[in-house]
Specification:
Layout (H helix, E strand, L loop, with lengths): L5 E2 L6 E2 L2 E4 L13 H5 L5 H18 L3 E3 L7 H11 L8 E6 L1 E3 L11 E3 L3 H15 L3 E9 L9 H12 L3 E6 L4 H11 L4 E5 L8 H9 L3 E5 L14 H10 L3 H10 L6 E4 L4 H8 L8 H7 L6 H9 L5
Parallel strand pairs: 3-4, 3-12, 4-5, 5-8, 8-9, 9-10, 10-11, 11-12
Antiparallel strand pairs: 1-2, 6-7
Organism: Planotetraspora thailandica
Pfam families: Aldo_ket_red
Protein name: Oxidoreductase
Length: 321
């Protein structure tokens, strides 16, 4: 498969249209649907490391050159760092992004009362940046605020913004990810600061509300990374709404590939993340690159769009499994 490289916004980083997010393979529990079937009972550290390396190998072989982790993704940074060393991937051969702000506190337990804790303070940034650099070293290309919101105040925190400016001056691009029904307001506020090189937001066939703001961010020179393109499994084969499933059958691809193709078709998108937990899922996701998105598909699936408030309410109720 040929995945052409493209610039990540105004940075000098090269990425591919499809990237790999490591949220699903760095820790035993996550909110994606169907993990029991995907991963089975063995979610020990070594088993999850092996699965993550299998997915990373398959992604690399397919031409994927953007990999996205976070401090809160359990051992995802550790797994990625070990894979980069073992496979002798030189710094700069792939663009590596990670995030700070959440801390994994699940203790590698499925039944943990809490799996992650959020703190968007400058103190947390400084500590987690040190932890990330200790693992990823010169491979770190992009460091992002994890799930920034207007309400959190992080975009008004001069200490945080100063640390991010210093990091940027040191040669690491800086970005933010967004969450919740007010993503658009967060994106516009971030663009106005002039600090950020990228924004990573949820956009999918169910939740499209961030689209206009992401287009404005793209026009301002930011790289746009789309996460949750299959809505944590709600747009994959197990749970796909019938209009999506029918359209996928007609085109000979899975619903997940068609859902990711919808995001790839947006003119303001730079990278769409696959959150595959298995090599089979990754292969299915990568078929999105060969889908021709047209006006007929756009019209056929327009009715799947939901209001953001109920969408995010449903997402917040998904169980860690």
């Amino acid at each position: 498969m040929h995945l052409p490289e493209r610039p990540l916004g105004r940075t000098n980083l090269a990425v591919t249209p499809l990237g790999l997010g490591l949220a699903a393979v760095g820790r035993p529990a996550y909110i994606n649907l169907g993990r029991d079937e995907d991963l089975g009972d063995d979610r020990g550290i070594e088993a999850m490391r092996a699965r993550s390396w299998d997915v990373l190998d398959a992604a690399w072989e397919a031409g994927v050159r953007y990999f996205d982790a976070a401090r809160s993704y359990g051992r995802a940074e550790e797994f990625l760092a070990g894979w980069l060393r073992d496979r002798e991937v030189s710094p700069g051969a792939a663009t590596i992004g990670s995030k700070w702000g959440y801390e994994y506190v699940g203790g590698w337990r499925m039944d943990a009362e809490r799996h992650e804790v959020k703190d968007l303070s400058a103190e947390r940034l400084r500590r987690q940046l040190g932890e990330t650099r200790a693992l990823l070293g010169d491979h770190l290309s992009l460091y992002q605020i994890h799930s920034a919101t207007v309400e959190s105040g992080v975009l008004d925190d001069d200490d945080v913004l100063g640390e991010l400016r210093a990091l940027r001056a040191d040669g690491v691009a800086v970005g933010l990810s967004t969450t919740g029904p007010r993503q658009a307001a967060t994106i516009d506020k971030a663009v106005a600061t002039g600090v950020f090189d990228t924004v990573q937001s949820t956009w999918n066939l169910l939740e499209r509300s961030a689209g206009p703001a992401l287009a404005r961010a793209h026009d301002a020179g930011l790289g746009v990374i789309v996460k949750e393109g299959v809505a944590n499994g709600l747009l994959a084969s197990r749970a796909a709404p019938e209009p999506l499933a029918a359209a996928a059958r007609e085109r000979g691809v899975g619903p997940d590939a068609l859902a990711l193709a919808a995001a790839l078709a947006r003119p303001w998108v730079t990278v769409v993340l696959s959150g595959a937990a298995t090599t089979g899922q990754l292969r299915d996701n990568l078929e999105a690159a060969a889908v021709t998105w047209d006006d007929a598909l756009e019209d056929e699936l327009a009715g799947l769009a939901e209001d953001p408030e109920p969408y995010w309410s449903r997402r917040s109720s998904l169980a860690w499994g």
